[in-house]
């Protein structure tokens, strides 16, 4: 087995580890999918990215028909969203709620594994004038689910931000904003009656950046704190190793202040931006990598916060792609963990243990066979110009000049651009003249960027494809062994679920 095959095998074992950890601990890490994205991939391509990275849970901010169709028969658990714009009409009319459920839920289950409806997004803090219809809307939707015999399969809740808890530290004294007492009591009563979870959007990034230095950044990033900086609740003497845990616990204590118990908290949004403006120094790829990798390890250990140690903190990372069309500060556009081609913005460890390196899969971008030569020339010119690809190797006398044709030169330029820019959203498209391949296009002394023989690499890892390789791309025995491992993982999960 050569080095490239070994790396592919190890990457697959890491995914197996993630599968086993997820099913044995009962905890999971999902992702949110926003759509304010230029060049948003097609729904089938998005699902391919989710599957390639073994993502088992996804939250949609609406009920997009194309996504729900593409997610059919994948087993991926889906939260669909009632948008804030839809909320008012649903909250005022049971018939509108019933029509919404029939169109956006009943029409897709069981093929599409819809498990929850998120009603609005941070309604109490973003559109407070709609608050009076929030719980009525949830009740109407639940009744529609009952009528469709889906109420045990699909739960209803509403994501709220930490802003409705004015003083979240110390957690033991945290309470909801009293101006919302009536609505929150109705909300908690609904969640209790329907065995649903409280949906929390928790962002230590904002807790830290708006905290004026009250807490160390290590606390926000799940990093160990020295003994002199330990964060302790003076009332309970609970030690908090992360701001994330403290936020979740503050929510549990706020719920408890209304004398409700056994309502689990699920974190529907959290994350860290990888890039920001000059006034956002903490929005860096390094911090985002640290936060999300440590978050995944934290969640997958299956424990809860100090006050609820036996309740896992199931969590959805914000978000799948950078939403470059969003308004606001630069950081607002840079929360994505993957480029639109499925490559990681920074090294990410889905297993919560070892990381997958940049060259682990050997995905390359090359010109398509039969592509129009004029379009290829235009793509080549763009890649070597505005795209800032390093095209020195395809100049006369250089290693990749021959064979001297536009397809060969375009393949080299396309790939150089792709390897360098995919982590920040660069795609392998070039007006439909390019495609990805796992077959290393290097030949002789012409070494393509990203090759295991290249001195430079793309800097971020691409998706891991577990499907069959081409005849020239690798060993079928290797693929069979991977499938056997994954089948074993499924058997383990089934065994755990039956015990």
TrEMBL record:
Membrane topology per the record?
Answer: Lipid-anchor; GPI-anchor
User: Where is this protein localized, as stated in its record?
Assistant: Cell membrane
Q: Name one Pfam family in it.
A: X8
Q: Which UniProt keywords apply?
A: Cell membrane, Disulfide bond, Glycoprotein, Glycosidase, GPI-anchor, Hydrolase, Lipoprotein, Membrane, Plant defense, Signal
Can you list the GO cellular component terms from the UniProt entry? plasma membrane; plasmodesma; side of membrane
Task: Using the UniProt record, name the top-level EC class of this enzyme in a single word.
Answer: hydrolase
Taxonomy, superkingdom: Eukaryota
Annotated EC: 3.2.1.39
Catalytic reactions on record: Hydrolysis of (1->3)-beta-D-glucosidic linkages in (1->3)-beta-D-glucans
Enumerate the Gene3D superfamilies for this protein.
1.20.58.1040, Glycosidases
Q: What is this protein called?
A: glucan endo-1,3-beta-D-glucosidase
């Amino acid at each position: 087995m050569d080095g490239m095959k070994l790396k592919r095998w190890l990457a697959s074992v890491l995914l197996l580890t993630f599968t086993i950890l997820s099913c044995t601990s009962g905890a999971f890490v999902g992702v949110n999918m926003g759509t304010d994205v230029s060049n948003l991939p097609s729904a089938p391509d998005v699902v391919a990215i989710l599957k390639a990275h073994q993502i088992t849970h996804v939250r949609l901010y609406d009920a997009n028909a194309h996504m729900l169709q593409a997610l059919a028969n994948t087993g991926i658990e889906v939260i669909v969203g009632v948008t804030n714009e839809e909320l008012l009409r649903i909250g005022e009319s049971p018939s509108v709620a019933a029509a919404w459920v029939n169109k956006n839920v009943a029409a897709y289950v069981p093929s599409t594994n819809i498990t929850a409806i998120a009603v609005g997004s941070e309604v109490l803090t973003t559109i407070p004038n709609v608050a009076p219809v929030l719980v009525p809307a949830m009740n109407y939707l639940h009744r529609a689910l009952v009528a469709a015999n889906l109420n045990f399969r699909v739960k209803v809740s509403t994501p709220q931000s930490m802003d409705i808890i004015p003083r979240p530290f110390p957690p033991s004294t945290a309470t909801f904003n009293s101006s919302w007492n009536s609505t929150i009591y109705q909300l908690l009563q609904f969640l209790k009656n329907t065995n649903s979870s409280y949906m929390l959007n928790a962002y230590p990034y904002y807790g830290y950046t708006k905290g004026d230095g009250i807490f160390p950044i290590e606390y926000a990033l799940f990093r160990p704190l020295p003994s002199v900086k330990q964060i302790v609740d003076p009332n309970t003497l609970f030690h908090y190793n992360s701001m994330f845990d403290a936020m979740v616990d503050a929510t549990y204590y706020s719920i408890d202040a209304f004398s409700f118990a056994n309502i689990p908290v699920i974190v529907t949004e959290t994350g860290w931006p990888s890039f920001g403006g000059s006034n956002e120094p903490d929005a860096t790829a390094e911090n985002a990598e640290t936060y999300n990798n440590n978050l995944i390890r934290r969640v997958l250990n299956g424990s809860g916060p100090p006050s609820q140690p036996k309740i896992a903190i199931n969590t959805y990372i914000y978000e799948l792609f950078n939403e470059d069309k969003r308004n606001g500060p630069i950081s607002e556009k840079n929360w994505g963990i993957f480029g639109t081609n499925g490559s990681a913005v920074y090294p990410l460890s889905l297993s919560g243990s070892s990381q997958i390196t940049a060259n682990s899969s050997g995905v390359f971008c090359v010109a398509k066979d039969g592509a129009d030569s004029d379009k290829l020339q235009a793509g080549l010119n763009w890649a070597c110009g505005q795209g800032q690809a390093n095209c020195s190797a395809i100049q006369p006398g250089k290693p990749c000049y021959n064979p001297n044709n536009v397809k060969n030169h375009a393949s080299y330029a396309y790939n150089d651009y792709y390897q360098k820019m995919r982590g920040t959203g660069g795609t392998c498209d070039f007006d439909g003249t390019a495609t990805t391949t796992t077959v290393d296009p290097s030949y002789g002394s012409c070494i393509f960027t990203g090759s295991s023989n290249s001195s430079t690499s793309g800097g971020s890892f691409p998706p891991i494809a577990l499907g069959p390789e081409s005849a020239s791309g690798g060993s079928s025995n290797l693929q069979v062994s991977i499938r056997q491992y994954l089948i074993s993982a499924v058997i383990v999960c089934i065994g755990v679920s039956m015990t």
